[in-house]
Specification:
Immunoglobulin-like, single chain, four-stranded antiparallel sheet, 208 residues, five-stranded mixed sheet, 2 domains, alpha+beta
Length: 208
């Protein structure tokens, strides 16, 4: 009779998990496994050592059965991470790239009394249109004698579109030879701007 029960319980254990969620499967399988192990251990122990063997066999069988039951639940549960859909969040993703200096005498320096331009690209690598994009340029060090134009707002930048932006830049007659350090970033209407980044250009004092 006990053997028939064990056989039936095993079938129930492996087929009954199909309609349960993961937490329920784990609890059910562990409990069912423990029950099967208890009876199986009791039978084996009784055949070997009588009543005492039956008692210890049931204890050992209960623990082993619980472990097996939990393992069944783990094997029958789907890998939720594997089947999780990948849906990237659609938004603008702005990038500043290719910052370069265009100077009148083409020596790659901002000379005293020279008019220059800072030119760079603003690229939208996202999946949505960026709105009211405002480039912000700030002088950090060595920029006291440099004058640059106020920012202009770009109405929109569509996905995968690049916009060339120009900043007019000039140096006074008092500029010194050295490095001019700048900070640049983008503001966007809905908060999809860029983090601050720095770049450096060279300045040169007036030569006599």
């Amino acid at each position: 009779m006990r053997k028939v029960f064990i056989y039936s319980a095993c079938i129930f254990l492996f087929t009954g998990c199909g309609t349960m969620d993961q937490a329920t499967k784990s609890i059910f399988s562990t409990q069912a496994g423990a029950a099967i192990g208890n009876i199986a251990g009791s039978i084996i122990g009784e055949n070997i050592g009588g009543y005492r063997g039956s008692f210890f066999g049931s204890i050992i069988g209960t623990g082993a059965g619980a472990v097996i039951g939990a393992g069944v639940a783990a094997r029958t549960s789907p890998d939720t991470e594997q089947y999780a859909p990948s849906t990237p969040f659609p938004s603008p993703y702005l990038v500043i790239r290719d910052i370069r200096l265009l100077d009148e005498n083409r020596n790659k320096l901002v000379d005293a009394d020279e008019n220059c331009q800072l030119v760079f690209e603003i690229f939208n690598d996202g999946e949505e249109t960026a709105l009211d994009v405002k480039p912000v340029l700030k002088g950090l060090k060595g920029t006291k004698q440099l004058i640059y134009s106020s920012p202009l707002v770009i109405d929109q930048i569509k996905p995968k579109e690049a916009v060339q932006y120009t900043v007019n830049l000039s140096a006074s007659s008092k500029v010194r030879t050295g490095d001019a350090n700048f900070e640049i970033y983008l503001d966007e209407r809905n908060g999809f701007g860029t983090s601050k980044e720095e770049f450096t250009i060279r300045t040169q004092k007036k030569l006599y």
